[in-house]
């Protein structure tokens, strides 16, 4: 600004003086509408940036989960093959003392019994879990909405 360093106050223009006084304005000098508008813009920007961060983080985690899921799938396949070999071994072992058809029938019956027990336990566990909705999150949002409404009425 001309005149600032020269010591000649009369050389300052009105615009320069106004811009210097605006430099020291506080939030209380601004209209409420302008403050609300700026706060709204800042909150919107913050939410957008948080969403971008969450997307990037979830994308990275998704890649890791995908790799881990593939490895678990491979392990599950090998485990199923091992169980099939174990079933065949059990049938062959029983066939040493029983006819082969009786050995196969006994092993099949035992497998059905195990499947029935696991199925009943799974059904009981699912029933105890309740409906598939995020009840705690829903309750939290409802509390937040009630509080916002109460504060708005004050």
Walk me through what this model shows:
By secondary structure, the protein is an all-alpha fold. The chain folds into two domains: 30-97; 99-153, no CATH class. 80% of the residues lie in helices and 0% in strands. It is built from four helices and no strands. Helix 2 (32-95) runs antiparallel to helix 3. The protein is elongated, with a radius of gyration of 36 Å. The model is unreliable at 1-10 (pLDDT under 50). Residues 125-154 are annotated as: Disordered. This is Integral membrane protein. It comes from Streptomyces pristinaespiralis (strain ATCC 25486 / DSM 40338 / CBS 914.69 / JCM 4507 / KCC S-0507 / NBRC 13074 / NRRL 2958 / 5647).
Which helices and strands, and how do they pair?
Layout (H helix, E strand, L loop, with lengths): L13 H10 L8 H64 L4 H30 L5 H19 L1
Helix pairs in contact: 2-3
What labels describe this entry?
154 residues, mainly alpha, 0% strand, disordered N terminus
Compute the average pLDDT.
81
Strand content: under 5%
Question: How would you characterize the largest beta sheet?
Answer: none
Global Rg: 36 Å
Low-confidence stretches: 1-10
Overall number of domains: 2
Distance between the termini: 48 Å
Number of separate strands: 0
What percentage of residues falls in helices of 4 or more residues? Answer: over 70%
What's the helix-strand series?
A: HHHH
Structure classification? mainly alpha
Assembly state (oligomeric)? single chain
The best one-word shape is elongated
Number of helices: 4
